[in-house]
Input
Amino acid sequence: MNPVHATVDPVPGGGSLSEFRLARPTVAVEAGVLGDKLRLRSAVIFEGWTMSDGELSLGAFGEGFVDRRHPHTYVHELMLSADDLLGSLDGGARVSLAVGKGFVAFGTDDPMSRPALRFPVNHHWSQVLERAVATVGAKVGPVAVEGSLFNGDEPEEPGQWPRIGNRFGDSRALRVTVFPATGIELQGSHAVVASPEQREGAGPDQFKWSASARWARPIAGRPAYALMEWARTSELDGAFVFSTFLAEGQYRIGRHRMYYQFERTERPEEERQLDLFRTVRPHHDDNLLGVTRWTIHTVGYGANISQWAGVRLEPFAELSLGRVSRIGAGLFDPEAFYGRRSLTSLSVGARLAWASAGGMEHRMGRYGVVAMPRHSGTHDH
Output
């Protein structure tokens, strides 16, 4: 979990705002039997209690929140996966099946497991999560292919469950991942998500593409990590198209952790409520007030001051410098709405985590044939 004091300047309507939040209070548990061929992965998040009105976050949007990151559902991940379903096949091929509530085989890792505290603006373009999902995977040599069936509807509140009865299977995704060397991954994926923002299924579908390259291996004997990703989402037969590019990296030297993230993401601007951090949901129609482009540089530093009996305490500071601009025609004028086009965010807090002895690193959204091996040492952020 992360106790954090954050300041954003300006916020909707102008002026600055500071808040204290307990973000990401999470309990993650994994258990395996039959030599880990059958494995349960779960993550429960209590943000619905600790930050029910969201977390100040530069450019964030999704699930009815805007300029705040929404709280995740309490059951963030509850997946049962079976590996080596067909036993040993020629060429060392493996087949797996994963079912439950969790991540779809699309895009990149959950930002919760990445270096920065600030969730990228592109969270809802680059990941599809908290769905009832069934994923079949196959891996031959360095190539893994996964296919998912899931429900399109996004949650609207932390205690909400997917509409399994009438929505499961209305959406699909396909992801191909190549592992050319230890700690290196190349990923490409496509998803069709039916009516994500209207739970009854009457809204427009999203057609999503993603490509990324991920590096997690030592440099000069020190843990290093880097990610580059591109994603694109289109709606209404291409009437609205949103693109994103993100690059981030992290390097550790002893107790010290330094990281940087660059992001350029296009965001829809929708009708807002009297509370300017909330949008009308479901939308009255399929029109947008406009589209904005967010360009954000984020730098951060953390120092691990305690690691005793599996407990890690890391104070950190994170600074984001952003700029927002309008794309094309539209009623939404970011300069009038925020008071200026440049924005800043400063977060100061701590990362507090505990892992049981011999615990497995938890990389959310990777199941079956693409799950991280035990004690791989690559997930150091």
Q: What stands out?
A: The two ends are 14 Å apart (CA to CA). The CA atoms of residues 222 and 257 lie 11 Å apart. The longest strand covers residues 311-327.
